[in-house]
TrEMBL record:
Alphabetized GO MF terms: 3'(2'),5'-bisphosphate nucleotidase activity; metal ion binding
Protein name in the entry: 3'(2'),5-bisphosphonucleoside 3'(2')-phosphohydrolase
Alphabetical list of PANTHER family matching this protein: 3'(2'),5'-BISPHOSPHATE NUCLEOTIDASE 1
Provenance organism: Blastococcus colisei
GO BP annotations, alphabetical order: 3'-phosphoadenosine 5'-phosphosulfate metabolic process; sulfate assimilation
Lineage: Bacteria, Bacillati, Actinomycetota, Actinomycetes, Geodermatophilales
């Protein structure tokens, strides 16, 4: 059999980590915090072990791992979020959590996959994604279900748009690719692992991806903090960027302590 491509590997890793997380989720935990901790730890360990086995020369940047500055000199870096949306993962009736696996290579995102295990779905850069046609009506903005950021509320008010609440950052980004939303606008700050795989998949599907000022997104940086993000249908990019430029709330946020980021 021919060797797997990086696209296939990203997909397989995300799907396998997702299957593991479904098993973890099915265990009897004493509380939600224990379920979250187990999911984060076991998915991280699985992904790290598999990448060490299959790609021993590559570096890894994971939300759950210690950052190694050696990645800055590496040609290939896997950027992973072993469990995106721990809150939703801990609530057994919710499916809006994800696994992110992306490969950065020589200055660009080269491959990526976002698994939504509770839906049995994985979107990846190696398979053509048919994006549904835009629907008539107000612009639909994917937003946090628990704490909609003021930025997105202000944007929706200015554009006459509507908010579509959901969980993890990866699920929000994939909602644009799947035609469930028209844009994912985030101004509260994230880390590279929150958006690398979603941006890779959305870009491969033909979506616009950028910072809120329209500038490019850069990965494998010395500081993995990314202040803001826009993923949207290409036809909406100019309109959204112009509206964002008029909003004071679109100013880049200060960097919180690790773990204080809201998607």
């Amino acid at each position: 059999m021919p060797p797997r491509s990086d696209h296939d590997l990203a997909r397989d890793l995300a799907e396998s980590a997702g299957a593991l997380l479904l098993q973890v989720r099915g265990r009897d935990f004493g509380d939600a915090a224990a379920r979250k901790a187990a999911g984060d730890a076991e998915s991280h360990r699985f992904l790290l072990d598999r990448l060490r086995e299959l790609c021993p020369g590559d570096a890894v940047l994971s939300e759950e791992g210690a950052d190694d500055a050696a990645r800055l000199g590496a040609e290939r870096v896997w950027i992973v979020d072993p469990l995106d949306g721990t809150r939703e993962f801990s609530e057994l009736d919710r499916s809006d959590w994800a696994v992110h696996v992306a490969l950065w290579e020589r200055g660009r995102l080269a491959a990526g996959a976002v698994a939504v295990p509770a839906e049995g779905l994985t979107l990846n850069t190696g398979e053509a994604t048919v994006v549904p046609e835009a629907v008539d009506g107000p612009i639909r903005l994917a937003v946090s279900r628990s704490r909609p950021p003021a930025l997105v509320q202000d944007l929706a008010a200015g554009l006459g748009g509507e908010l579509v609440p959901m969980g993890s950052a990866g699920v929000k980004a994939m909602a644009v690719v799947r035609g469930q939303a028209d844009a994912y606008v985030h101004g509260g700050g994230q880390y590279e692992w929150d958006s690398a795989a979603p941006v890779a998949v959305a870009s491969a599907a033909g979506m616009h991806t950028s910072r809120l000022d329209g500038s490019p997104l850069h990965y494998n940086q010395p500081d993995p903090w990314l202040p803001d993000l826009l993923i949207c249908r290409p036809a909406l990019a100019d309109r959204l960027l112009a509206a964002l430029a008029e909003l004071p709330s679109a100013a880049a946020p200060s960097r919180p302590n690790h773990g204080g980021v809201h998607a």
